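Regression test case RT-17, inverse folding.

Input:
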């Protein structure tokens, strides 16, 4: 193994450590342990994180998160985008809580984990049944997108719900009703869901920066519209799905190059801001962008595992 590969392998191992350190005793994964605004557990982030930990063989960690979500469902706390780490409601009234993608992702991640590790899925069947019933009723109605900015029928949201229901044998979603909009969340259609062709080319053509990172969407003004590490890793996974290992390796190296000395991976890079005039107002409001972001570590870990650099 080359020196570069050894460094990536060490960062992948560090990623599992940072994720474990960011997992509450309840099983919840905090979005970022050092960024107060992100001191909650999102269904979307958490499901991707749990899936990455499952892929890495960290079964207990993944199952603790699945159990945490199941308790929320069985306790009748509703189907919200995020919760406090102890499982209680986010009652701040400041966040859009109708986000269906995270619940579809939870159904999908549980089923994937059970198949991967030969685990009896009946452990989560009651909570999964209630979740599936909810999504079957609600998928036709607008919800907020991955970035918590727009309400509508989003392609990524519908893909997550379709995958989650499909993993439990339910066909209900019509993805054709989704709005057509350039957004890097479209990459999830290619990986992990293996849906339509052309997504990789579309994202590379409109959202890949000259430096090699991926922006969320052209209108992004959050912290200036930087390049997101998790999306760059997701692009690498989608490229690998298309058989382009060389590009996937390039994405892996780009993400690794943005690690802090302690191995923390931030939410985004400021190498190529889309709207630099909006950077300082966000810093004044919330401080520097979060680091580490556990979702960044999860997607990096996924890509390192897929390329055989991590085990």
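Golden output:
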């Amino acid at each position: 193994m080359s020196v570069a590969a050894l460094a990536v392998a060490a960062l992948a191992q560090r990623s599992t450590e940072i994720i474990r350190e960011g997992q509450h005793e309840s099983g919840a994964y905090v979005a970022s342990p050092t960024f107060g605004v992100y001191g909650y557990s999102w269904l979307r982030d958490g499901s991707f994180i749990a899936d990455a930990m499952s892929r890495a063989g960290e079964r207990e960690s993944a199952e603790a998160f699945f159990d945490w979500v199941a308790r929320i469902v069985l306790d009748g706390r509703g189907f919200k985008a995020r919760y406090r780490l102890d499982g209680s409601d986010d009652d701040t009234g400041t966040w859009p809580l109708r986000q269906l993608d995270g619940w579809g992702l939870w159904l999908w991640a549980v089923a994937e984990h059970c198949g991967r590790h030969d685990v009896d899925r009946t452990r989560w069947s009651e909570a999964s049944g209630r979740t599936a019933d909810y999504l079957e009723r609600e998928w036709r109605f607008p919800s907020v997108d991955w970035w918590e900015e727009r309400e509508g029928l989003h392609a990524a949201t519908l893909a997550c719900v379709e995958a989650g229901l499909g993993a439990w044998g339910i066909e209900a979603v019509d993805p054709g009703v989704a709005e057509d909009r350039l957004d890097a969340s479209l990459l999830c259609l290619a990986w992990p869901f293996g849906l339509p062709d052309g997504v990789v080319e579309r994202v590379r053509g409109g959202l890949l920066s000259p430096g090699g990172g991926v922006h969320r969407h052209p209108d992004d003004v959050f912290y200036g519209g930087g390049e997101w590490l998790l999306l760059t890793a997701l692009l690498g996974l989608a490229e690998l799905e298309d058989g382009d290992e060389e590009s996937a390796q390039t994405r892996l190296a780009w993400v690794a190059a943005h690690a802090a000395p302690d191995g923390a991976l931030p939410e985004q890079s400021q190498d190529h801001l889309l709207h630099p005039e909006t950077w300082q107002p966000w810093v004044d409001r919330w401080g520097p962008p979060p680091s580490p972001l556990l979702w960044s570590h999860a997607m990096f870990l996924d890509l390192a595992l897929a390329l055989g650099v991590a085990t």
